[in-house]
Amino acid sequence: MPITPTEASAQAREICGLAPIVPVLVVHDVTHARPLAEALVAGGLPALEVTLRTPAALDVIAEMAKVEGGVVGAGTLVTPDDVTKAIEAGAKFGVSPGATDPLLDACEAQGLPLLPGAATASEAMALLARGYDMLKFFPAEASGGAPALKAIGAPLPQISFCPTGGVSPKNAATYLSLSNVVCAGGSWVAPSDLVKAGDWAAITSLAKEASQLARA
């Protein structure tokens, strides 16, 4: 069912509001999908972004979509074909490093709430003009970090962000203290060594710590 940009942003904002951190997941082995999702949800991080960076990604989304309490999205959406495949796999929202008209058109036509990426005021203004007011700030640290995002927010207070890219336990609280930040995306809650080892208890512990981070 088609969705408008305003509806897409409202739904994306609601998903972003579920927890202060959205795990950004690069999963290579589909057998890790369900226990990883269960560990993160148990730790208080229900919104999960599975990046389309591995051959297993779509199968991982399909498995994670079965986990009760989780809301699974597809990250690194670049083309309309990515959108179609993500929806077929069970993704409930999408995340993109940037935004193009073909990508936005595809998400709107197929009813997928999208968190489109922006790194500059001009990019953010272009998306706002189309109707998007909940955006991904990417790559966050490389684009100037929290000071840059705060500066962008001064003239554009109507836009909210999920900074991703270089967000870590050391700087997450600084990002979350900004009035224009709803949540942040981070990969540290599911480090590859713990995933490979199947140490789900440790991942749940990291998720619990992240879920307690305070937001503005």
Explain what this protein looks like in three dimensions.
Its EC number is 4.1.2.14. This is 2-dehydro-3-deoxy-phosphogluconate aldolase. The chain is 43% helix and 15% strand. The chain is of the alpha/beta class and 216 residues long. It has a single domain, classed as Aldolase class I (TIM Barrel, Alpha-Beta Barrel), CATH 3.20.20. The protein has a six-stranded parallel β-sheet with strand order 5-4-3-2-1-9, with helices on both faces. It has a three-stranded parallel β-sheet with strand order 6-7-8. Strand 1, helix 2 and strand 2 form a beta-alpha-beta unit. The longest helix is centred in the first third of the chain and has 12 residues, at 5-16.
Q: Approximately how much beta-strand content do the residues carry?
A: 15-25%
Q: How far apart are the first and last residues' alpha carbons, in Å?
A: 34 Å
Described by strand count, sense and barrel closure, the largest sheet is: 6 strands, parallel
Sheet/helix structural class: alpha/beta
Going by CATH, the homologous superfamily would be Aldolase class I
The helix-strand sequence is HEHEHEHEHEEHEHEHEHH
Task: Tell me which CATH architecture applies here.
Answer: Alpha-Beta Barrel
At the first level of CATH, what is the class? Alpha Beta
Choose one word for the global shape. globular
Mean pLDDT: 98
What is the count of β-strands?
A: 9
Strand order of the largest sheet: 5-4-3-2-1-9
Keywords: Carbohydrate metabolism, Lyase, Schiff base
Organism: Epibacterium ulvae
InterPro entries: Aldlse_KDPG_KHG (IPR000887), Aldolase_TIM (IPR013785), KDPG/KHG_AS_1 (IPR031337), KDPG/KHG_AS_2 (IPR031338)
Catalytic activity: 2-dehydro-3-deoxy-6-phospho-D-gluconate = D-glyceraldehyde 3-phosphate + pyruvate
